[in-house]
Write a structure and sequence with these properties.
Layout lengths: L7 H6 L3 E5 L8 E5 L8 E5 L11 E9 L6 H5 L3 E5 L4 H15 L5 H22 L7 H6 L3 H10 L7 H8 L3 H12 L3 H18 L4 H7 L5 H12 L6 E2 L3 E2 L1
Helix pairs in contact: 3-4, 6-7, 7-8, 9-11, 10-11
Length: about 250
């Protein structure tokens, strides 16, 4: 595994689900398209929050509905609303898209599962490409794209329960303490401490919704006490963590 895998923590914590659809519908938000009807795939569009297919300029070959845990996943909120990629510029995407279309056009045993898994691979490659391209200039995605800051972000994502200090995070990023604080604030938009707390609470909320106890979750995500977790949780979400039901959201 890559030493600083920028997506691993999100793929572990949040469900990525994709379902191939019979055609462009209101449920679709991923489109593989060609320049002309009958041609091979040349273009991918991912409308993160939903939206129309690339009609007119492209002919849709395959469409799918993708859900990456919606608003529970902070990465989703940082992605551009619409991402367009020419496959000629991204050979890895071209190869997977060709396999994806082949399965859709020539169904075989297990083809639905294969299509759905290939669709998930496409989404990971699309997000990877968005990070590499610096698709946004501020926030989490910008931090993940930063050549130095991403190392500290990945460290926090991978080990939220660690007792991180600004000095240690700066060291991981290869920066002085003052430079790290300044760059983190200007790129990510908040202090390292505030970011870490928000990430811990995000993971805590997800864990509570899966049925774990408040006490178990508090220590699992890095809070020193149940009381500290409860105060921070209530301040962020407006309800105490005890109100979260098993898979039911808020009471």
């Amino acid at each position: 595994m890559h030493k600083h895998d920028r997506l691993a923590a999100f793929l572990r914590a949040f469900d990525l689900k994709a379902r191939v659809l019979s055609g462009p519908t209101d449920s679709a938000n991923l489109y593989v398209a060609a320049r002309e009807v009958g041609e091979g795939a040349s273009h991918i569009r991912f409308n993160v929050a939903g939206g129309p297919p690339p009609e007119g300029e492209f002919a849709v070959i395959v469409s799918a509905g993708v859900d990456f845990s919606g608003e529970l996943n902070p990465l989703v909120g940082t992605l551009p609303d619409r991402m367009d990629f020419l496959l000629a510029d991204t050979p890895a995407l071209q190869g997977v898209a060709d396999l994806f279309i082949g399965e859709a056009q020539s169904p075989r045993c297990g083809t639905v599962s294969v299509q759905d898994r290939l669709c998930e691979v496409i989404i990971v490659l699309v997000i990877r490409r968005a990070i590499a391209a610096g698709a946004v200039k501020a926030g989490m995605l910008a931090g993940l794209a930063h050549p130095a800051l991403h190392r500290s972000l990945v460290a926090m994502h991978d080990e939220p329960a660690c007792k991180w200090s600004v000095e240690r995070l700066a060291q991981i990023a290869g920066m002085s303490r003052s430079h790290f604080i300044e760059r983190f604030g200007s790129v990510v938009g908040e202090t390292p401490g505030a970011y870490l707390t928000a990430w811990r609470l995000t993971l805590g909320r997800k864990a509570l919704m899966s049925g774990r106890s408040v006490k178990q979750v508090a220590y699992q995500v890095g809070f020193g006490s149940v009381e500290a977790f409860s105060r921070a949780f209530s301040a962020k979400y407006g309800v105490p963590p005890s109100s979260v039901k098993n898979g039911m959201g808020w009471q």
